[in-house]
Design a protein that fits this description.
Elements: H1 3-13, E1 23-26, H2 29-35, H3 40-45, H4 47-60, E2 64-67, H5 77-82, E3 87-88, E4 96-97, H6 121-133, E5 145-149, H7 151-159, H8 161-168, H9 172-197, E6 205-209, H10 218-235, E7 240-245, H11 253-256, E8 263-266, H12 272-279, E9 284-289, H13 291-296, H14 300-314, E10 319-323, H15 333-344
Parallel strand pairs: 1-2, 5-6, 6-7, 7-8, 8-9, 9-10
Antiparallel strand pairs: 3-4
Length: 345
Amino acid sequence: MSDRAWDNFLIAAQGGQPDHTPVAVVADCGFIASAFGMNTLDFFLYPDRWLRAHLALMQRFPEAVFLPGFWVEYGPAVEASAFGAPAVWRQDEAPAIRPLTLPLADWRHLPRPDPYADGLMAFALRRLLNLEQGGELPEPHRIRFVAARGPFTIATHLFGATNFLAALAGGRSEARIAAGVLESLTEGVLRFLQAQLGCLREPWGVMLFDDAVGMLSPGLFEAVAGPLLERIFTTFDGLIRVYHNGTPCEHLLPYFAGLSFEVFHLSHRMSIAEARALIGPDIVLMGNVPPQEVMGRGTPQQVAEAARECILQADGTVLILAPGGSLSAGTPARNIDALVSAALY
């Protein structure tokens, strides 16, 4: 990616007006491995191939910012594995999580992980350290953002979405246990993000992925989620904070406006115009071209039309143009080109 791409992104993320609409893309293991014809397990197993793929991607699309950038991730397994959930490794897919089969009363005994020792967090941190301080990452590249899944999404991976949300919305005893779990998970997320930042030479920001928050009612958000998310965001005051929530959650956008983050990566199922009206003027929107129906399976013309509609709906307010989620495996390069072209021209 070019310095100009980063400059435009940073100006927009801080609420300024860049030269043109910046483009940002969240690219995970599934997309990158498929783009370079790699088996997903090989993508994890061979660090040299992993790095070559990331560098080639950034060289191919210099006008796009890839977030979080050189992302050391194993699907959803990094965070959940540190809390004791086993990862399920399939032959050519990102790992999945096998939920814990603990009775509700035992949830309170969830461990508080050491990110340097527990689960795949330890591998992710060592990889970051080797890249940033071990000489593996070629000049002038830097890893600018760190990332983690948020406490609510981790909880749904650990216990199953239905089980956890039912407990959180249940009677006083169940809700107290679920809230205690979220406190432990929040502490674990903070430790992991802080450990990642300690690996970087020039960190600029933090990205939090927590789709599960979008399934909460306004009452539960105010009582439970809001304070925990704010604790995470305020810990990183001074950095650019990007919150990804790919769940349609129009009912929560007015509450998001009160949280301390700069950029909201939203679901493509919400329009830019609607989101802007609900979240207010201060948070920068990032989105929201459909990642599968348009980016993955559409034509370049359809991508360009969807992108121009997002820019039009922004109505002069700051927008970071992006797919409304991670790029899906098999997304053609020409569609990313079309996204970039729509922003440039």
